[in-house]
Design brief:
The complex is a heterodimer.
Chain A (H helix, E strand, L loop, with lengths): L1 E3 L8 E7 L3 H9 L7 E7 L6 E5 L2 E5 L1 H4 L2 E7 L2
Antiparallel strand pairs in A: 1-6, 2-3, 2-6, 3-4, 4-5
Chain B lengths: L8 E7 L5 H9 L3 E5 L6 E9 L2 E7 L11 H13 L3 E7 L3 H12 L5 E6 L1 H6 L3 E2 L1 H8 L2 E4 L8 H14 L10 H18 L6 H9 L3 H8 L5 H14 L8 H17 E2 L8 H9 L5 H19 L1 H21 L4 H19 L1 H17 L1 H15 L7 H6 L4 H7 L6 H9 L10 H11 L2 H30 L8 E4 L7 H35 L10 H22 L5 H31 L1 H6 L1 H14 L11 H6 L4 H32 L1 H13 L6 H9 L6 H9 L10 H9 L5 H13 L4 H11 L2 H28 L4
Helix pairs in contact in B: 3-11, 5-11, 7-8, 7-10, 13-16, 14-15, 15-23, 16-19, 16-23, 19-35, 21-22, 21-33, 21-34, 23-35, 24-29, 25-29, 27-33, 30-31, 31-32, 34-36, 35-36
Classes of the chains: A alpha+beta, B alpha/beta.
Chain lengths: 79, 809
């Protein structure tokens, strides 16, 4: 099942399929290792529901929901 | 082995944020560091040196970055140092526990073709996590010399230095290259050919070719600056056109670099590390908990605020007291005159003002260094980002802004924790809206003078609230008009928690305090001397009377009265006089002690006192009425009276006479300083700007006090005191409040407008000095002063005229 990173639940994990954003945001995401084929897991949401914390390449990364919406994930592990 | 060549080796340290680069830098260079800024930008430049096996090593600590694009100032600065300065050796510090991501930066460093040493840092943590790195293999794959280090325990430092010297001697460029695949490689080779033909560019050619294909704006600009490069640029453009439909040119190069990092990582590690829950994950579960995350954050901020502003107030007070004492001493030693005044009121007061902020800065950066080094700072931003974003700010902005309720200086300096320059600039541009503690005495003065007790708390709260609203509105306006364009993504690493070393925290703290003293200190000192000059010159102000003569006259008059009293009691000889005079001295001493005790008590109650001035003011009136009746002997003279019943009446009479004399002379002193101030340049400025301030309902007195308050906000109280010829300072406001109420040009509405003006217009000179340093120059400082003064004027105008329309006065 493919869905955006922003709509995943805590504990769900999967592989990045596609980045739909552009410009600075896309570049920053790619520089942090969010390239297609990378495995990510949603660790938690901030107290106010935004930003999101994910684990990627064995480190923790925080990104805003608006940015996570541009990332499509092939979900492979349920929460 | 010690080759005694005198030339030094230049080394640049590169690496990801949080990889321990700074710890290694500190281990190597110790105290031999220079901190400054790169020319023209506010990116911090750190250099240091050391001597190892007979060689001088010069280290430059590059900004920590994840990549080397032209999209971030830090990254641009880092790569420009490498390609322009061509350091002899590039040391890439790598977090071994996070090898895969760190290799992405390494891939970009390889392309810059400098001799490369990799410091595989935190190798202990990596082993704990079950990551076993085959160093030989990694070295083969990257073509770099590799040294294992544990920066926290200073392990591997000598091995690293030895490797640096060896690599420098060989001057060997790394052999590994990144393969960009069958579609891109022909394009790269073609452009390299073209670059070779031009033969003018001094940068690594393959790197330039790749960057041209990436359409890197900075590299394009650099290439244009060289001769005979038109063909190169045309070729690159032609290839981009050709490739753009086949590949995603925007990220294809980054993807290949990641592939290189992933392949290198997979080949260099033995065994597969498991996805395990680390201790850091467990700590994080509590600190960023859905429900407890915010309360914990609030508590941490409360601790930090109190560390800086409550605990910091003690050493700040000691430093101020010490400088006051120094001023008193110098005032007594240096002969009376202009030099005395310059040294005491100008220089010592100025240096004192500079030094008194040092404890606040030291404590703030002690706190910030601890929060940053432990890893909590990133979590604070994570927790607060949603709220701060609604205000047009970044999650991390909260911390420096909160400090602003103590003092604006830590806010402006603390904004350095923001990585993005736009966020940092917006944060410091709205810093003054956080009411600093020096403005509190100004508010309590006016609120106490013009508002009934029941309303005072509300008025004060309204002013603080107005500051917050203004900060939000202005932050949004600045974001939209001053720093427009694509918004910076909030993509932030949450580094693993760890206990910082005492050394790193202390070094961080020392750096800030030093920066403050070095750059801001001189400016503040100069400004203090300027304000002193404006308030005390010209010296030959025409006076309404000869005050020295008047004082002499008063002294003679009261001496005559003393003698009359003594005669009345039949005392003529010096032997008879001596015990009486001794008793008078004793009474004076007791009175002074009593006054000091009362003042101290008052200080302790300062919180209430400011808002309960009404009662005290009534007392004042009552005392004034009593003045005509014969004064009663106060209780604390009772012992003296009993012990010496015969001599007491005469001593008491002389004591009263002395008190009256002191008061008369005090009045003359006050009148003289009022006239002096009225004739000074400061007053001229106040009168000059009065027409501009008229529409706000401010007269020249308020204008003058606003000018002197630029030195420091609490100075406004003492200036008004001088103008109204009454001794007042921030600790003793009530008598002044009575005078303010009696002045017809002062109304509650004017007072509110004045408080709004004080809230918005530039904070003290010290803050402006720090602002200039941190914002990067006079242009920004000018903008800041102009915008905040204009906004202050508009706000006060709206308050005053709007208030009058609504029927207030």
């Amino acid at each position: 099942m493919i869905k955006s990173l922003a709509s995943m639940k805590t504990g769900e994990a999967g592989t990045i399929k596609q980045l739909r954003g552009s410009g600075n945001i896309k570049h920053r995401l790619v520089d942090m290792g969010l390239v297609p084929g990378t495995f990510v897991r949603v660790m938690k949401f901030a107290p106010l529901g935004d930003p999101i914390e994910i684990k990627v390449k064995n480190f923790d990364l925080a990104l805003r929901v608006s940015e996570a919406e541009t990332i499509d994930i092939e979900v492979s592990q349920e929460a | 082995m010690s080759d005694q060549s005198t030339t030094s080796i230049r080394i640049a340290l590169a690496g990801n944020p949080n990889c321990g680069k700074t710890t290694i830098f500190n281990n190597i260079t110790g105290a031999k560091q220079h901190v400054g800024n790169y020319p023209g930008v506010t990116v911090e430049k750190k250099e240091g040196e050391c001597t190892f096996s007979g060689k001088d090593l010069l280290f430059i600590d590059l900004p920590g970055t994840y990549s080397l694009t032209a999209r971030s100032l830090d990254e641009l600065v880092a790569r420009n140092v490498i390609i322009n300065d061509e350091p002899d050796v590039l040391v890439n510090v790598i977090d071994a526990s996070n090898l895969e991501r760190n290799l992405y930066l390494a891939a970009q460093l390889l392309e810059l073709e400098r001799p490369l040493v990799m410091a595989l840092n935190m190798s202990d943590v990596a082993k704990e996590m079950g990551v076993h790195i085959d160093i030989k293999k990694l070295s083969e794959l990257t073509g770099a010399t590799i040294v294992e280090t544990v920066g926290r325990n200073n392990v591997g430092t000598t091995e690293l230095l030895q490797a640096v010297i060896d690599v420098a001697k060989e001057a060997k460029k790394p052999s590994a290259t990144i393969d960009y695949g069958p579609e891109l490689e022909p394009a790269i080779k073609d452009i390299v050919n073209e670059l070779e033909k031009a033969d003018t560019i001094t940068y690594p050619l393959r790197w330039v070719a790749i960057k041209l294909l990436e359409a890197d704006p900075d590299v394009i600009k650099k290439v244009k600056a060289f001769e005979r490069t038109e063909a190169v640029l045309a070729k690159a453009e032609q290839w981009r056109e050709e490739l753009k439909d086949k590949v995603d040119l925007e990220i294809i190069f980054q993807e290949f670099r990641h592939s290189f990092a992933v392949a290198t990582y997979n080949n260099a590690i033995k065994g597969t590390p498991k996805e395990i829950e680390t201790r850091s994950d467990r700590i994080d579960k509590v600190l960023t908990h859905r429900i407890w995350g915010l309360p914990i954050f609030v508590f941490v901020m409360w601790l930090l605020f109190n560390l800086v502003n409550t605990i910091g107030a003690y050493p700040q007070g000691w430093i101020e007291d010490a400088f006051t004492a120094l001023g008193d001493w110098a005032g007594a030693v240096i002969p009376e005159g202009q030099l005395n005044s310059l040294v005491v009121d100008g220089i010592i007061a100025g240096v004192g003002a500079v030094m008194s902020f040092v404890p606040l800065i030291v404590l703030l950066f002690l706190g910030i260094a601890f929060l940053e080094d432990t890893g909590y700072m990133a979590r604070a931003a994570f927790v607060m980002d949603r709220i701060m974003r609604a205000c047009g700010l970044h999650g991390k902005s909260f911390i420096p802004l909160l400090m602003g309720y103590g003092c604006s200086i830590p806010t402006i300096m603390g904004a350095r924790i923001l990585d993005n320059n736009r966020d940092r600039m917006i944060t410091i541009l709205v810093s003054q809206f956080m009411t600093c503690s020096a403005r509190l005495p100004v508010y309590t003065l006016f609120i106490g003078a013009f508002f009934p007790v029941a309303q005072r708390g509300n008025v004060l709260a309204a002013i603080y609230f107005a500051g917050i609203v203004l900060a939000i509105v202005m932050a949004k306006i600045f974001r939209k008009f001053l720093f427009p364009g694509e918004s910076e993504p909030f993509v932030m690493e949450l580094p693993p928690y760890h206990m910082p070393t005492l050394k790193s925290v202390l070094m961080h703290m020392w750096e800030r305090a030093f920066l403050y003293l070095k750059k801001a200190g001189t400016f503040i000192l100069a400004a203090s001397v300027l304000i002193w000059f404006l308030a005390s010159y010209p010296q030959d102000v025409p006076m309404s009377q000869d005050f020295d003569a008047a004082r002499d006259q008063v002294t003679q008059e009261y001496e005559a009265r003393d003698n009359a009293i003594l005669l009345q009691y039949g005392i003529a000889t010096d032997e008879q006089k001596a015990p009486v005079m001794a008793m008078v001295d004793e009474m004076t001493a007791i009175q002074t002690e009593q006054d000091e005790a009362a003042a101290e008590e008052g200080e302790e109650e300062i919180g209430d006192e400011g808002l309960n001035g009404e009662a005290a003011a009534t007392d004042e009136a009552a005392t004034a009425e009593d003045a005509n009746a014969a004064p009663e002997v106060p209780d604390y003279f009772h012992d003296l009276q009993v012990a010496n019943a015969d001599a007491f009446p005469v001593a008491w009479a002389i004591y009263l006479n002395n008190q009256e004399k002191d008061e008369a002379i005090g009045d003359l002193d006050q009148k003289e300083s009022t006239e002096k101030l009225e004739g000074s340049y400061v007053a001229s400025i106040g009168k000059f700007i009065e027409p501009v301030m008229r529409p706000l309902g401010f007269d020249w007195k308020m204008s003058v006090s606003l000018v002197t308050a630029l030195a420091a906000k609490e100075v406004m109280v003492s200036t008004l005191g001088t103008i109204y010829s009454i001794a007042a300072d921030e600790d003793n406001e009530q008598p002044l409040q009575v005078y303010l109420r009696q002045d017809p040009s002062f109304t509650p509405l004017v007072a509110v407008g004045l408080m709004m003006f004080v809230l918005i217009y530039p904070p003290c000179f010290a803050a402006m000095a720090v602002f200039k340093r941190e914002a990067g120059g006079w242009g920004w400082l000018t903008f800041f002063v102009v915008y905040s003064t204009a906004l202050a004027w508009v706000a006060a105008f709206i308050v005053y005229n709007g208030g009058r329309l609504l029927g207030f006065h």
